[in-house]
């Protein structure tokens, strides 16, 4: 500053300088507060965005805390990670499928790998398809079980208790006959033949005079006596795939079982109630055709395990003729019944030209 400047001007410049410094000092806290406010606003905006995103994707703070994997889930979604679906395990193939029997064609387009239809009186074969193939027969086994128990003339009012030995360890099948339940032999026979009750059938074999091993031996002896050359039994229920037979043999068994009025009555019964402890249990026939007015069924038995496919044997009167029908390894839950319907319509459509020159030899 020059020496000729007035004292008043110098004083004015000093005042301006003081105000400028004061203003600068005052603005520093304000700027710091403003910067802090901006940071807080950014954090709030980010939090709102995350919450909105979580809500849109169905992820809430509660679910994140509950699963303990919310952060990982959100991270996976942000990265576009997609979890692979569980593999579909195909159903195991039956013995007939493995042997290629399903590929066999027939005029009726049956779904069963094996089929046989014979005239019970004349023993003429009306229809046959892989009738000599030996396959697992599932619960068709129970027809032999019932035949032996019935022929033994054991007391049908004798009470039998279901034990742990009767529980299925082969397939893990369910039963409403709990361990400790007591039923009469007659009730067990009814349930085994009508509703294919596995524990009932096993208990019948277990309590047979001589025990289970003796009973199975008698099953095989009876099969040989009937001329069932392709048949082998290892237990009385049919849960084992080692119980095997052919359509030819099963036709012989159906014919023998039909001669027993008790077996005809029990296998065609539509339903049955039993008192087990304080409970009354309702059981139904496994073959819905017994309720169908279009059918006149004299005897029947169904069967299924994966190795055997859907199986069915029947004696029925169609177009005035008594027929024995065997269907083994049918594909589809209702296909065995569909095959029986196809045969019935086929016989009814041409009852006078059904005779063939092929006799049933068994």
UniProtKB/TrEMBL annotation:
The domain of life for this entry's organism is: Bacteria
- Entry binding sites for substrate: 301
One Pfam family named in its UniProt record: Peptidase_S11
Say if the entry is tagged with keyword Cell wall biogenesis/degradation: yes
Catalytic machinery residues? 139, 142, 196
Coiled-coil boundaries: none
Tell me a GO biological process for this protein: proteolysis
Tell me the first and last residues of the signal peptide. Answer: 1-32
Name all Peptidase S11 D-alanyl-D-alanine carboxypeptidase A N-terminal domain ranges.
106-330
Record-level Gene Ontology MF annotations: serine-type D-Ala-D-Ala carboxypeptidase activity
**Ribosomal protein keyword on record:** no
Q: Which UniProt keywords apply?
A: Cell shape, Cell wall biogenesis/degradation, Hydrolase, Peptidoglycan synthesis, Signal
In the record, the note on similarity to other proteins reads: Belongs to the peptidase S11 family.
Q: By its UniProt entry, which NCBIfam families does this protein fall under?
A: PRK11669.1
UniProt xrefs under PANTHER family: D-ALANYL-D-ALANINE CARBOXYPEPTIDASE, D-ALANYL-D-ALANINE ENDOPEPTIDASE
Name of the protein: D-alanyl-D-alanine endopeptidase
Organism encoding this protein: Rhodoferax koreensis
């Amino acid at each position: 500053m020059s020496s000729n400047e007035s004292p008043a001007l110098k004083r004015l410049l000093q005042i301006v300088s003081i105000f400028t410094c004061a203003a600068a000092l005052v603005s520093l806290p304000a700027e710091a507060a403003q910067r802090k406010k901006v940071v807080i606003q950014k954090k709030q905006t980010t939090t709102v965005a995350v919450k909105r995103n979580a809500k849109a994707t169905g992820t809430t703070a509660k679910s994140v805390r509950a699963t303990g994997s919310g952060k990982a889930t959100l991270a996976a979604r942000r990265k576009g990670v997609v979890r692979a679906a569980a593999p579909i395990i195909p159903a195991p193939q039956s013995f007939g499928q493995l042997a290629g029997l399903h590929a066999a064609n027939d005029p009726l387009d049956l779904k069963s790998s094996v089929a046989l239809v014979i005239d019970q009186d004349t023993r003429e074969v009306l229809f046959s398809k892989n009738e000599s193939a030996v396959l697992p027969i599932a619960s068709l086994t129970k027809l032999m079980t019932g035949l032996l128990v019935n022929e033994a003339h054991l007391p049908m009012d004798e009470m039998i208790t279901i034990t742990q030995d009767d529980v299925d360890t082969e397939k893990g099948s369910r039963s409403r006959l709990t361990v400790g339940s007591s039923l009469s032999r007659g009730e067990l026979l009814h349930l085994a033949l009508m509703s294919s009750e596995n524990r009932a059938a096993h208990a019948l074999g277990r309590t047979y005079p001589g025990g289970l091993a003796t009973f199975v031996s008698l099953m095989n002896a009876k099969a040989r006596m009937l001329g069932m050359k392709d048949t082998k039994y290892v237990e009385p229920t049919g849960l084992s795939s080692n119980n095997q037979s052919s359509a030819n043999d099963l036709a012989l068994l159906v014919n023998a079982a039909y001669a027993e009025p008790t077996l005809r009555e029990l296998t065609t019964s539509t339903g049955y109630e039993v008192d087990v402890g304080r409970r009354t249990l309702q059981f139904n026939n496994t073959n819905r055709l017994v309720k169908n007015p279009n059918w006149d069924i004299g005897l029947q038995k169904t069967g299924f395990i994966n190795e055997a496919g859907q199986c069915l044997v029947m004696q029925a009167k169609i177009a005035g003729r008594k027929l024995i029908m065997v269907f083994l390894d049918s594909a589809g839950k209702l296909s065995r019944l569909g095959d029986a319907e196809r045969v019935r319509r086929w016989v009814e459509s041409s009852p006078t030209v059904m005779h063939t020159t092929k006799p049933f030899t068994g």
